[in-house]
Amino acid sequence: MLCGAVALTGCASTPLAAAPATPAAPAHDYLIGPGDTVSITVWRNPEVSMSVPVRPDGKITTPLVEDLDASGKTSTQLARDIETALSKYIQQPVVTVIVTSFVGTYGEQIRVIGQAAKPQALSYRRDMSLMDVLIAVGGITEFASGNKASIIRNVDGKMQKVPVRLNDLIKDGDISANIAVRPGDVLVIPESFF
Asked: Are 118 and 133 in contact (CB under 8 A)?
């Protein structure tokens, strides 16, 4: 019986190496940005409850509240600001704000430039990885130099260049090349020169 167990152990396939541990992304609360849509509910006051877009200047307008800054705030902060503005007209207003369409602030979007199939800016989502970004932009073009790509990241006010291995991740399935992205990252995918 022991010989059989040893024989089976010898035939077992080698397990894949685990992806290296990457530092956890800092805690992140979603900040409202231009292009988002917010649903504002004022308890017991349906006439001033509505869904509104955040304008390109970062402000919203609702009945009784004009030109209120929304960009860069959490939904809770915006709700408290609306309550303050409405308190001139409504006794003790209770406001709930729900973000229903997400774009985010420009400083928190993930930008993908260069040889992506669809270069674009993406809304950051908690626990977003490089693979998530590549799926969203449709991968890389045939002219991309994927293993020479890099992420430009702002760390404590200083720009850092983080090398990434897109070809290893996409073409070889090397999960160890999948790293966490952070709000404000810029993925630069250069063109290969033959």
From this structure: no
Task: Tally the domains of the chain.
Answer: 2
Write out the chain's pLDDT in tens, 194 residues: 444 444 444 444 445 444 444 455 556 789 999 999 999 999 999 999 999 999 999 999 999 999 999 999 999 999 999 999 999 999 999 999 999 998 989 899 999 999 999 999 999 998 999 999 999 999 999 999 999 999 999 999 999 999 999 999 999 999 999 999 999 999 999 999 86
Q: How far is CA 84 from the centre of its chain?
A: 30
Domain with 141 in it: 109-189
- Among 110, 119, 106, 193, which residue's Cα sits nearest to residue 151? 110
184 lies in some domain: yes
CA atoms within 13 A on the CB side of 69: 6
Integer angstrom CA distances of residue 44 from 94, 96, 100: 9, 12, 21
- The predicted model scores a pTM of 0.74
For 84, residues 6+ apart whose C-beta sits below 8 A from its C-beta are none
Taking the C-alpha atoms of residue 64 and residue 23, their distance in angstroms, rounded to an integer, is: 46
Q: Is 79 within a domain? A: yes
Alpha-carbon dihedral sign for residues 167, 169, 171, 174: positive
